[in-house]
Q: What sequence folds into this?
């Protein structure tokens, strides 16, 4: 849990977060900065925010930052300013770094490691440090994994003084697209758009059997499409939907599982699919709109599967929908806050007609402020704007830190050629068989994803496993979507299922039981990547309408069959052999 700062410390922290947001507005619009300086500002300010809001240990003070926290925050800003003022000299001297430059670079790396430990967790931090060490001690590794090794000076310069390490492409995407779209989500929340999504979902699905579970699916899809964070999605919609599910008769662990599975899918839902989708666009060098269009059918199939499962579960348990008197009017919901959908529609339109994601995010942000002023119930005052800038910046901080720490892995792979070695080994172990290579990549992604957020898990899998699939003839977009899906699914795969644990806290259920149930509900999500690798038309690759419709129909039939097998219900309760046959 993060600190809730008050008093002088709260004011200082608020000035820092709001200033950070405004600086990012400037950098991404009229500020003419080269990428590495922009990334330095992004990293320095976010590290300072992490040190103020995230306690170092469980026994650290929760009400205010300690003196070491203030010191580390100041050091983060100091390292940022050093790079800003000295990088031109480094360029002029072809990166001939002085002792002071190297010392600041090492300090930046150490600060990043500590910020990552606090905000992202130990698994990613330790993995990144392992890759960093690998660049130095490579000669001592066995067989194909050995390399000639690099001295520490070269490693430090590459990792912390160039755009090939922590200031690389992943942090560049975080400092631009990701930050601006997270702010967009924060402004939507501040204008009470989430209330509209909840009312709209209730009016649309609440009256059907097991209604609140279907409300959770619809609301999580809508909120997830703009938040890009599974855990934020659970916290936003779960606080509203989980009590409703429990009230109509769902067991607490199942209610939490529905919310966890539905919220995880929000990262897969266009138009805004989280940081990983923007990074994918940069890795592949294709417009983001192609990523957005490709993501539509898999996301539809994923949510269709969860809807099948909650409906069959409600039928199995004899659960009813909510009473008409408990439901809001769809017409009233549309008239009250329906206009807040306009900025989201505007962003989709701008992306489809060819504007950049950055430009679309800017227009969307100003669109929210303008459209929200049309009704008193949604109008944003100056306090609402400040609160949105503050919450958006704090939400972006752990995402930016994870994108930075992954730079150690990306940099190490680039220096050592490890990606090609692993790709070659995957192909060799698979015996040239694509299905075997897919299973190996899936297992690797799931193992890597245990404890990693979706974005760094995607980056690592895309860096290491996607090249192997591409060498075996898989379309690059399908290979990266394969990595993207398994990076996302890591949020609900036990034993480290972070989204399920968040939902368990809201449901008052045992976390592991919620995680196992959520994995069952999201089982289709673990099979979908195989579908679109073998049928790339589902990603609108080499699109032919008759084949697309046939593949969509058979995929839907398969998902329904799997849902019947998992829940054990169709027209009646199924015996075990029927469940197995359907599955």
A:
């Amino acid at each position: 849990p993060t600190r809730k700062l008050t008093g002088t410390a709260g004011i200082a922290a608020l000035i820092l977060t709001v200033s950070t947001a405004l600086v990012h507005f400037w950098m991404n619009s009229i500020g003419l900065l080269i990428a590495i300086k922009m990334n330095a500002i992004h990293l320095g300010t976010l590290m300072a925010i992490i040190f103020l809001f995230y306690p170092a240990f469980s026994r650290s003070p929760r009400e205010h930052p300690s003196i070491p926290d203030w010191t580390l925050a100041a050091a983060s800003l100091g390292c940022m300013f050093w790079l800003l003022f000295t990088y031109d000299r480094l360029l002029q001297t072809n990166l001939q770094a002085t002792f002071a430059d190297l010392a600041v670079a090492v300090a930046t790396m150490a600060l990043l490691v500590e910020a990552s430990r606090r905000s992202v967790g130990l698994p990613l931090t330790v993995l990144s440090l392992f890759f960093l060490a690998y660049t130095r001690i490579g000669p001592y590794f066995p067989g194909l994994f050995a390399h000639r090794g690099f001295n520490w000076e070269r490693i430090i310069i590459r990792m912390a003084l160039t755009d090939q390490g922590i200031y690389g492409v992943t942090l560049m995407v975080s400092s631009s697209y990701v930050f601006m779209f997270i702010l967009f989500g924060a402004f939507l929340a501040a204008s009470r758009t989430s209330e509209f999504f909840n009312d709209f979902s209730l009016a649309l699905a609440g009256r059907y059997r097991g209604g609140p579970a279907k409300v959770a699916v619809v609301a999580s899809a809508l909120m997830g499409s703009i938040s890009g964070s599974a855990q934020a999605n659970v916290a936003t919609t779960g606080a509203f939907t989980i009590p409703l599910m429990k009230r109509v008769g769902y067991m607490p662990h199942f209610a939490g599982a529905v919310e966890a599975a539905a919220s995880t899918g929000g990262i897969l839902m266009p138009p805004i699919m989280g940081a990983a989708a923007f990074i994918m666009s940069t890795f592949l060098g294709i417009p983001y709109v192609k990523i957005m269009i490709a993501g539509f059918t898999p996301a539809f199939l994923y949510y269709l599967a969860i809807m099948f499962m909650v409906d069959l579960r409600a039928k199995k348990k004899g659960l009813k929908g909510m009473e008409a008197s408990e439901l809001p009017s769809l017409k009233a919901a549309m008239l009250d806050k329906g206009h807040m959908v306009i900025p989201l529609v505007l962003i989709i339109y701008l992306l489809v007609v060819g504007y950049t994601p950055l430009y679309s995010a800017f227009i969307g942000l100003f669109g929210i402020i303008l459209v929200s002023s049309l009704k008193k119930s949604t109008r944003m005052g100056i306090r609402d704007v400040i609160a949105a800038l503050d919450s958006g910046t704090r939400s972006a901080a752990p995402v930016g830190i994870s994108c930075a720490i992954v730079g150690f892995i990306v940099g190490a792979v680039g220096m050592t050629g490890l990606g090609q070695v692993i790709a070659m080994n995957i192909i060799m172990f698979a015996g040239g068989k694509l299905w075997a290579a897919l299973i190996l990549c899936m297992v690797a992604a799931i193992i890597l994803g245990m404890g990693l957020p979706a974005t760094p898990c995607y980056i690592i899998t895309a860096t290491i496993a996607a090249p192997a699939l591409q060498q075996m003839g898989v379309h690059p977009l399908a290979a990266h979507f394969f990595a993207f899906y398994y990076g996302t699914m890591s949020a609900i795969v036990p034993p480290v299922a972070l989204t399920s644990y968040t939902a368990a806290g809201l449901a008052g259920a045992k976390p592991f039981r919620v995680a196992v149930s959520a994995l069952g509900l999201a089982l289709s999500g673990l099979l979908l990547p195989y579908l679109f690798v073998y049928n790339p038309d589902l990603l609108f690759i080499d699109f032919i309408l008759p084949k697309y419709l046939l593949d969509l129909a058979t995929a839907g039939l398969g998902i329904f069959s799997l849902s019947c097998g998992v829940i054990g219900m169709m027209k009646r309760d199924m015996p075990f052999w029927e469940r197995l046959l359907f599955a």
The CA atoms of residues 52 and 70 lie 7 Å apart. The chain has a mean pLDDT of 88. The two ends are 40 Å apart (CA to CA). The chain is about 75% helix and 0% strand.
